[in-house]
Amino acid sequence: MSDTLTILLVDDEPLILMDLEMAAEDRGFEYVSAPSVERALALIEGGNPAIDLAILDFTLLHGTDCLPIARRLEQRGIPYIVHSGDLDRSEEGLGELRAVLVPKPAPSDKVIGAALVEMRSGGDHGAPLAAH
Q1: What percent of the chain has pLDDT over 90?
Q2: How many CA atoms lie within 13 A of 63 on its CB side?
Q3: Angle at 28 between CA 26 and CA 33, to 5 degrees
Q4: At what angle do helices 108-121 and 14-26 cross, to 10 degrees?
Q5: Domain with 90 in it: what CATH number?
Q6: Is 48 inside a domain boundary?
Q7: Which domain range does residue 119 map to?
Q8: Is 44 within a domain?
Q9: What pLDDT sits at residue 131?
Q10: Cα 95 to chain centroid, rounded
């Protein structure tokens, strides 16, 4: 087992994804990235490298959302947070997630930090939380 933390980064906006990748690198973490539900699920199923935590954008390519990814992560016991610009809308399904919600825009280092706090807490939140 590697001592290096691996983060799954899921966002359909290339600049945001790149910024998150750089923030993960700056902290010495490994990362795998996906712009879509299909790619993210393939990375989770592939298991190499094993994913320790994830940062998910809610709305993804082609009008899809992160719900299938979140459910798969939950099944596998992998903590995640949602980093999205859609938090002010009453998105159907967003309320289903028991995740820390980090609104966009937010500094990428803060987003990575929120994911680490979630991982260390074991994802034990009774209801969605908004990180400010």
Answers
A1: 60
A2: 0
A3: 80
A4: 60
A5: 3.40.50.2300
A6: yes
A7: 6-130
A8: yes
A9: 45
A10: 16
**pLDDT tens digit sequence for 13-72:** 999 999 999 999 999 999 999 999 999 999 999 988 899 999 999 989 888 999 999 999
**Vertex 92: Cα angle to 91 and 93 (nearest 5):** 105
Strand partners, 100: 81, 129
Q: Is residue 1 part of a domain?
A: no
Measured CA distances, 113 to 1, 43, 46, 91, 106 (Å): 23, 22, 26, 25, 11
Per residue in 43-56, pLDDT (tens digit) is 999 988 899 999 99
pTM value? 0.87
Looking at the structure of the chain, the number of domains it has is 1
CA–CA–CA angle 98, 103, 109 (5° rounding): 100
Q: What is the DSSP letter of 128?
A: -
